[in-house]
Design goal:
7 strands, three-stranded antiparallel β-sheet, mainly beta, 6% helix, four-stranded antiparallel β-sheet
Amino acid sequence: DESARLDYLTLTNETTASVNDVLASKFKIYPNPASDVITIASKNIKVTSVSLYSVLGKQVLSGLELKNERLNISELAKGVYFLKINSDQGSVTKKIIKE
């Protein structure tokens, strides 16, 4: 008999939240998809600036400060973008859709 047998084999799936996951969960970005304005609300975190990138990695908006937690995207072409939010606790990147 050339077969191998294993006894007492246990598979586990352990996941832990990274620091970026925890920070990202503290931001609410809505509406998404959006046509004119995106609201970036945060729980006790000061947003220092935001940047927006195309799916090709080209920076289309940079170093912007939010006005009343809002970012105007009305001038952008329809498509998928990546929003980088810089805060006093680090930075996170979220995918947004401009319709």
